[in-house]
Amino acid sequence: MKIKIRNKFKFIYAIVIIIVLITLVITLIVTNIKNKSIDTAIKETKVEENIALANATLYNIKENINSRLNDWKLILVNKENYLPDNYEVNLKTINGNMKVDERIYNDLKNMLNDAKKENLDLLICSSYRSTSKQKKLFNDKIKEYKNKGYSDEEAYKEASYWVLIPGTSEHETGLSVDIVSIDNQVLDENQEKTKEQKWLMENSYKYGFILRYPTNKKDITGVNYEPWHYRYVGKENALQIKKLNVCLEEYIEILKESLNKTE
Ligand SMILES: [Zn+2]
Fold first, then answer.
1. How far, in Å, is the centroid of ligand 1 from the Cα of 128?
2. Which fold has domain 72-129+169-261?
3. How far is the CA of 100 from the centre of ligand 1 (A)?
4. Can you give the residue ranges of every domain in the chain?
């Protein structure tokens, strides 16, 4: 009888141990699953945070490129891109009777002053030109050819070779200046040999200006080499354009392409 009771006790004891063990295993499994799901949740949150961060950065880049492209400093005026009819410009007089967009006045003045410190005399020989002035120049040229016996069509073609069609000259923006050396006031390619032009080509970007029609970009700009025509694009853009060794048309294209890549 005693043995039976002891066996019964052992049996219950074994059952209890088994139940405890099973509970323990189940607890371990459940805890493990819980931990795993917490880990996954943390990881997912991190991924979401990173995606949000990446989106924000991308958004900033897009905004930055967009605002650059739409900025007045990058207005593109050439044979294909006419100045808008409603284009308005507030002018400020510099060096006696030259007029430029007032927003570029300070940088232009600093450039001239700093050149002066290097004993270089820069002379602005052309600056803002109203569209009506451009029209007059253009019509005078047409007349010149018609007087030589050219037909209307031929005269127009010849004139547009020498004078930019009204609405397509950068001088109408007030953002461009023709600068020559005081010792060489002729607009020819010898300009590039003067110490003034050499200094300008090297330093103008620091003041936000670019050499607008470089000799190796004729095919893209559609304008012959003009080592005297400088265009204001702002310091940031001028630095990039110099680094990339591109002309304004190419630079705008690069900005547009990088905007497309972020879409
Ligand atoms: Zn010019």
1. 9
2. Muramoyl-pentapeptide Carboxypeptidase; domain 2 (3.30.1380)
3. 13
4. 1-70, 72-129+169-261
* Residues found in the chain: 263
Q: Residue 97 — φ and ψ, nearest 5°?
A: -125, 15
Full pLDDT tens readout for the chain, 263 residues: 566 667 777 877 778 788 888 888 888 887 777 778 778 877 888 888 888 888 888 888 888 898 999 999 999 999 999 999 889 999 999 988 999 999 999 999 999 999 999 999 999 999 999 999 999 999 999 999 999 999 999 999 999 888 889 999 999 999 999 999 988 888 888 888 899 999 999 999 999 999 999 999 999 998 888 999 999 999 999 999 999 999 999 999 999 999 888 77
How far is the centre of ligand 1, averaged over its atoms, from the C-alpha of 64 (Å)? 30
User: Taking the CB of residue 11, how many other CB atoms lie within 10 A of it?
Assistant: 10
Ligand 1 centroid from CA 206, angstroms? 20
Q: What residues contact residue 88 under an 8 Å CB cut-off, 6+ apart?
A: none
Residue from 170, 172, 196, 226 carrying the catalytic annotation: 226
- Residue 196 Cα to ligand 1 midpoint, Å, equals 16
Residue 164 neighbours by CB under 8 Å, 6+ apart:
79, 134, 138
What residue ranges in 74-228 does DSSP mark as E strands?
A: 91-94, 98-101, 122-126, 176-181, 209-211
Catalytic (active site) residue 196: no
Maximal C-alpha separation, the chain: 143
* 233 phi-psi bin (left φ>0, alpha ψ -120 to 50, beta other): alpha
